[in-house]
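Q: I'm teaching a short session on how sequence maps to structure, and I want students to see two examples side by side rather than one. Could you give me a first protein with its sequence written out and its structure tokens following it? Keep the formatting plain so it prints cleanly on a handout.
A: Of course. Example one:
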Amino acid sequence: MGDGSDPCAEVSLQPLPEYSIPSDGVTMTCITCTDRGHVFLAGRDGHVYELQYTTGSGWNKRCRKVCLTAGVGSVISRMQSRYLNSALKPYQ
């Protein structure tokens, strides 16, 4: 509440051109991350995406968006989402 006790009270996003991905026309409604650097996005299309990236310099930097809730992996994703719902604190 502005007193500095909540580290998630204010989030500042910085554009990093080397880590950009297309949204494929999907509006992202929520972004959250884990202590280990995993970034998850909730799409208005009802799917959950993970922003997968590698660190490094030059051509070694890579970034991609993976849908966790579509296709064959949807059963596994539902199991993962149960874990994620209990483990993640969304930044809103």
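Q: Perfect. Now a second example for contrast.
A: Example two:
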Amino acid sequence: MPILRAVSRVLDLAVWIIYAFSALAMASLVIFAGWQVWGRYVLNSSPTWTEQAALLLILYISLPLAAVGIRQKFHLAVEIFPDMLSPRGRYWQEMFVLVGLGFFGWAMADAGIELMTRTVRQAIPLIGWSRAYTYLPLAISGVMTVIFVAERIAWAIADPKRASHPQSAPFSL
């Protein structure tokens, strides 16, 4: 279990980085939207790049946070069915769900990488970046989902009486 605790601490750091990046991206999103409004209504010259940049930022905010939601258990879940099961039944039901989430994460990563390779030479209109950047958060989130699911499964196997999430404190500097 010491190795699992060490891995969890590293993943705590990864979650902290995702939170920090998402906060910066959200602040940038607000600034871009403000610049769009200022340009349109005050300067009468709307910047063309802000809408595409905002759409890109939404992907970079939402998809990594969805992966974190699987680790932190703040994703959408129906709790009535597991509450009707015995502790052993709950354990196996959770393992079944985690394996399904792992396959979903793998499919996200695989599709994201495939889409990146297909669109690397296409440009995003108005900002000129490669279209592959649109699919990068899908691939990253898929990989992070698989890693977070593997951690939860490892904790469930290492200590079946404990919740599958390590319940460790958030990483702090």
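Q: What should students look for in example two?
A: Point them to this: Confidence is low (pLDDT under 50) at residues 164-173. Also worth mentioning: The helical segments are 2-41, 50-72, 80-83, 87-119, 132-158.
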